[in-house]
Specification:
Two copies of one chain form a homodimer. By secondary structure, chain A is of the alpha/beta class. Helices cover 44% and strands 15% of the residues of chain A. In chain A, helix 5 packs across helix 14 and helix 12 crosses helix 13.
Chain lengths: 438, 438
């Protein structure tokens, strides 16, 4: 590999020849490319882009850089997965995996930890006492076999090229690049051997991609690159103009998910169930287990109504070593905490206008991470009692913060300023699903 | 310094705030910025540019990163310098420094080694037996005091930030950037304490900047950034569509320069003298020692006619430890070598059309460097007997190559193919000076 010529090509805005990117990735993992050369190339890619063919080659090479899992067994049910770009209160994975497993699909999910806008399904699950997220491949297979689904943390052996490149991107302001985001996400999914995937690309003031046009671009890129790697894929662009559902944090979100699976979705939790049904229905239709989305939604709803989804969740938690004593009364999972109520200062209609400030406030409380080394406080979080367009009366509780430390609360409340406003006239909230990409 | 935010700013195409770049450079030299972060920033600069104010700040910070020389002494003559972007056969420094010294100016010149398109004045001088180019600052000052001028190699203590950044640029395809080239050149000149400088920016098929418009852009950038640092500056954009003068290589060029200083400029050497007078006249006029360029040229010509420029050269060579026995018969400097003649295959008018191939051939012979670690062969070189527009007859010698090793010669001749052609009609050669920037 003529690495300087390789960087030059992209810096000049030209396309790489076939095989060039694959050689670059292989050399990178082998240690034959200096970090400063890789980061220069990443910046050239951020500014000059990659074609779809280049992105497919990068993604395939990244997937091939480490261990790959193969789930295909003759006669086994389809293997499906859902991936979200992350947002406040997004506990859909916790709800959807048991529902899909109860509907007869295999759902081996590899999830991430919270970082910036990235949700931390793994952090959420770790608020269940005893729950193990670092499973060996045989243990992962056993849990999937037993409970239909499992949710485990990514191992360093999966797509190590992504680990190297992501580390550099994080330190060199090259995170925001649709081809690089696509390659990072899809390479891991490809290495995990998933057959059908639905991407939940969040947009709005609480999302990593606040502009719907950009979110749609990312969604299209995820779908086409996945297909380029032989993975059946669809994407929904969904609402992150306000927190999703009732709870936002770690143990609070697990509690909300368990409550939903117990058939106790009410108020703002309804949106979580609705979105889970939307995403699940796409997977059911894609994998051919239901002919259309309407039938798929009915079948998925039935897994909740019958209690089978909840049973599947309980089985999965048990199989991964987690305690289940709390599950009959989901909110008993919460550790002792202090509570602060944010109330409406006047009457009117609530409008979430800068939802990222709520996310930032949650991070400051200890529910998320700004840096990889930040420690999560499982009990830190919030219950969101009013959503976009809700009629509120002066004195109504809008948000109930759970916290442990007053100085953190003060910082969080300062940051929250401007996250929402109360307008004097009614307003129309944005839909839950803004765009479907098939 | 928030280094990720700093890179982000430039990657997003925004301007850096005052002081930001200076902090970055200081941190870089201190070791507080990772190489991969610096290279990502360099790529962002290459693709998004720097404003003039940003380039001035970068240049000033790079100059301030190491040792600085101060030549200002009350009543001392002005300190002047010339810098060329490099080209084939460019021995102007060797001719001009003694002429300016003989005209009463101080010319403390810090020169570079050959690398790619960059000329190697230091390599040329080292073909004089005994000549020392690595002088301490006191020794440098003594030679300038004694001989009016000195030509020494850059010390690692001058602008160390440039050393770090240049090393990264070379390995990350970020060399071609007008603000970065400007900062690299001007920072060293500023650290060297020069008061008046003229830049010789080469353009044409044998130059680093083959497009005249790009060369002019670089010339304007060099002048305005120099002025931003308080250095009086002008620039000429000059002809590198064909090799400059008669000789190209190392010892051959020193011999040609000595011959010119002895008043023996004839044939193609005339262009070297003409360009030296053009550049020197700008410096004489800038520093106020002559009212206009015509008078300055007369005075500089007189230093050659009177033999004073030659004496000054001899004095400088002696003061820097070089042997002078060869100087009465300049061509006796050449070591034993083999000769290969390239002859006209038909009659017509010569046209240099890809002069870079001649430069490449010289490098392959051993006269230049592709990599920093390549060894120079002092005797390798060529005498160019025909220039752009010259009438040639079949069998005329066009180039006389000096070489030591037949396999290198074969490679060089292969590379030379297409460097020039013989056309059937007359053609007008390009002027020596294409543009003056004052």
């Amino acid at each position: 590999l003529d690495i300087v010529g390789f960087i030059h090509r992209k810096a000049d805005g030209r396309a790489h020849g076939p095989g060039e990117i694959a050689t670059f990735v292989a050399e990178l993992v082998r240690g034959g490319v200096a970090d400063y050369q890789a980061s220069a190339w990443l910046m050239a890619v951020k500014l000059n882009g990659l074609s779809e063919a280049e992105t497919v080659e990068l993604t395939r090479a990244m997937a091939a850089s480490g261990r790959r899992i193969n789930w295909k067994v003759r006669g086994a049910p389809p293997t499906v997965d859902k991936h979200s770009t992350g947002g406040e209160g997004d506990k859909v994975t916790l709800v959807l995996v048991p529902m899909l497993a109860a509907a007869g699909l295999r759902v081996p999910t590899i999830a991430g930890r919270a970082l910036g806008f990235t949700g931390g399904t793994i952090d959420k699950l770790e608020s269940i006492p005893g729950f193990r997220t670092a499973l060996s491949e045989p243990a992962f297979r056993r849990v999937v076999q037993m409970a239909g689904g499992a949710i485990v943390a990514q191992s360093a052996h999966v797509a190590p090229a992504d680990g190297i490149l992501y580390g550099l991107r994080d330190a060199t302001a090259t995170v925001e690049s649709i081809p690089l985001i696509t390659a990072s996400i899809v390479s891991k999914k490809a290495a995990e051997g998933v057959e059908h995937i639905v991407y939940d690309v969040k947009t709005g003031s609480g999302a990593f991609m606040p502009e719907p046009a950009q979110a749609e671009k990312l969604a299209r890129s995820l779908v086409s690159v996945s297909r380029g790697l032989g993975i059946d894929a669809r994407a929904l662009v969904t609402n992150m103009y306000e927190p999703l559902g009732f709870a936002a944090g770690n143990s609070v979100e697990v509690a909300e998910a368990a409550a939903i699976l117990r058939g106790e979705a009410e108020g703002r939790s309804g949106a979580v169930l609705d979105l889970s049904l939307e995403l699940g229905a796409e997977l059911m239709a894609m994998s051919g287990v239901e002919r259309n989305r309407a039938a798929a939604k009915r079948r998925l709803s039935e897994t909740v109504a019958s209690g089978r989804a909840f049973d599947q969740f309980e089985q999965m938690v048990k199989a991964q070593g987690g305690s289940t004593g709390w599950m009959k009364k989901p909110w008993s999972l919460l550790r002792p905490h202090r509570t602060h109520l944010v109330k409406a200062v006047r009457s009117g209609w609530l409008r979430w206008k800068a939802a990222w400030k709520f996310g930032e406030a949650l991070r400051l409380l200890g529910a998320g991470r700004a840096r990889r080394t930040d420690r999560i406080l499982p009990e830190a979080g919030a219950l969101v009692r009013a959503g976009d367009g809700d009629r509120v009366t002066k004195g109504d509780v809008l948000i109930e913060f759970h916290y442990g430390d007053s100085s953190r609360l003060r910082q969080a409340l300062d940051t929250l300023d401007g996250a929402f406003e109360i307008s004097s006239g009614p307003l129309k909230p944005k839909p839950l699903v803004l765009k479907r990409i098939r």
